[in-house]
Fold this protein.
Amino acid sequence: MKKCFTTSANTLTVLFAMGILMNSAWSSRGQTPVTLKEAYKNDFLIGVAINQKQFSDEDPRGIPIIKAQFNTITPENVLKWESVHPEPDRFAFDAPDRYVEFGEKNGMYLIGHTLVWHSQTPRWVFQDADGKPLDRDALLNRMSNHIHTVVGRYKGRIKGWDVVNEALNDNGSLRQSPWLKIIGEDYIEKAFQFAHEADPDAALHYNDYSLEIEAKRNGVIALIKKLQAKGIHITAIGSQDHVRLASPTAEQVDATITDLGKLGIKVMITELDVDVNAETQLLSTADVSAAAQNSGGYTNRLPDSVQQALTKRYAELFGVFLKHRDVISRVTFWGVTDGDSWLNGRRGRVNYPLLFDREGQPKPAFATVMQAASVEK
Ligand code: GLA
């Protein structure tokens, strides 16, 4: 069925440039969606990871975009262990409370990110009071306490949790994290069990990156099947999709979602962004390579040729996501504007990975994502 979305990409860009759509009444005009969440309302939730300034009402540029465009949010950092549980007997709930209030006030589907991860987790988590490694039972107790306290606090409010993040190596084997070394392989199912006990109605996700690598994908599929065979409550698999301009290919993204979809649980694209610096050598134009050779990357502006490559990339990605709209329940961008992205500073470069530029204006990639939603399905 064709949707009633007819506004062309160019028209949208011009309208935005004129600031016409950037007011508080930024919403649909009649039957024509002008926001991402409206354009995709019959397909999947459209989300964004937000930072403290944004959910604390201190980012006048980002907040109107978040409110207008997205119907689900993820906290970029404040629910990671090091932030929410910085010391053994201290939880820091001020910021997460504000995150939840912001989401509820704006009628958004709230994601919790993330409970068990090897990164951004303090070292004390794995040690006793004397700095010696914890044994299995003590670490399981600590994990249980953390999950029950954090998930329990937001029971019924945070609707979906990234329970375990990045447990696999690229070859599909389990990462040798302190969780695995101390507890053993069943740390994953225990984490899901504790989360389910803490909020039986919450959706629970396993989240990881580079699932387009076949060996890793096979590893994750085997892991999920094992959890399912044991009756563990797991409702979705999160594919982070921190991608580059040329890799993984659209075919690989497509094949990945097809394979994951066969597990009988939802697939979520949880951390989407496109690193424009990683593969500049693949683009041939002189201005691109000249700019990219500089250590700062595209310091002042993104060359047109890369802007176009980015736009094309987003078009093909959303083409794939839409093809799988029966199994995909959410697509979340990892940041609001280019200036917010974690990719800035990587390899010492300025990056441009998202749909909104540093001024909060929609880029051509925004128009192409809007346009993708109007295509005959
Ligand atoms: C991982 C994590 C996210 C975020 C990103 C980028 O993918 O899941 O929380 O930290 O890396 O930094």
Observations:
- The pocket of alpha-D-galactopyranose is lined by residues 113, 165, 209, 240, 271, 342 (CB under 6 Å).
- The two ends are 6 Å apart (CA to CA).
- The first helix runs from residue 9 to 17.
